[in-house]
Amino acid sequence: MKPNNTTTAPTVLSKTTLLLMATACGLCAGANYFNQPLLNSMVQHLQISDAQASSTVTMAQVSYGLGLLFLVPLGDMLERRRLVLILMLLAACGMLLSGISGLAGSFALLAAGTLMAGVFSVAAQVLVPMAATFAAPGTSGRAVGLVMSGLLVGILASRSVAGILSHLGGWSTVYWVGAACTALMAVLLARALPKAAPVASVSYGTVMKSLGELLRQHPRLRSRALIGGTGFATVSVLFSTMALLLAGPGFQLSDLMIGLIGIVGIAGALMANVAGRLADKGLEQPTTMAGALLMLLGWLCLWLGGTSIWWFMLGLLVVDGALQALHISNQNVVYALAPEARSRINAVYMTTYFLGASIGSALGSWAWLNHGWNGASLMGGLLGLISLGVVHWDRRLLGQQKDQNS
User: Fold this and answer.
1) Can you list the pairs that 136-143 forms with residues at least 24 positions away whose Cβ atoms lie under 8 Å?
2) How far apart are CA 18 and CA 22, in angstroms?
3) What is the pLDDT of residues 277-299, one digit of tens each?
4) Most CB contacts within 10 A, which of 64, 127, 249, 307?
5) CA 385/CA 185 separation, integer angstroms
């Protein structure tokens, strides 16, 4: 591939633009998590089973993963500002469809809207590598950490906002508001984002073929993608079951209260910015190990949280913070592997990340339906152990790489 060095984008994005990108990422990614505190309300309003309601969590993750695989690589061959705007407007249409499903009382429409919003909300993952590309020298970790903090706060705050809006106007109100805000943000980005010419003048088939080549060429892309996938699988066990636990006989919390509990996790999202700064100092490895160990500690707290709301909130805080330590460290490593192919690198990494999320959601739902909260906690802990094992594998790969270079 011959790089196309022509670009009208500025060398460095301003902090104001980065903050706007962070907000846009939060809106896009958060749309896939609106349903998590609303599962019990969906069961009652649409007259569906717990399993059907939980399946919308898996649908959101699977469709997002498909968008990552087939749409995010376009960032290396199309003008990225236009790509972001188109994807955001289509995601808003998906949320609009989910809102209509509430009026129609149709689970089929809800499923269709969830899938559509999931596929096109990957606009966030076109913005993240842009932040790394146009960061000042030596600050890419901080730039990515800032944008990712917005994305992660959006994910966590979306649960709280969803609970509040559901309390005020019913669960479908969440999707009406989400659609309007996403469309508005697309308009704001149209004015703020610089034009960014494609990195390479190649066909879509060539870009897609290169994904496999990148995986073969970079062993640590494989290991870091697996760390991300297993880490997010662990947390997705929690995402797919927490509303059912908290709304059940043990706690009997409303959508509003379940959403407000999600605010606790926002503090964990601040770990993204801290992890970005540590990455700029070359401390990705200890940060990754700390994240894997904290994940296991968090699930111990969550298991105790089956009968104590205070242990549950502590576990939620620790698990969310641990995931951010893993995720930002991973991104700092993989973006440095092939700077000229960051959108494709991001597609490989994030596809694995959300494939892990969809598997974790499915396993969490299965564990909950068959063994209750104890089963879900055990599943989360087992996936956390797998993640820790992959972290050790990545450390060995790094050692081998240093030996080869010495």
Assistant:
1) 136/12, 138/280, 139/280, 140/280, 140/332, 140/335, 141/276, 141/277, 141/278, 141/279, 141/280, 141/328, 141/332, 142/273, 142/276, 142/277, 142/280, 143/13, 143/18, 143/276
2) 6
3) 777 777 888 989 999 999 999 99
4) 64
5) 39
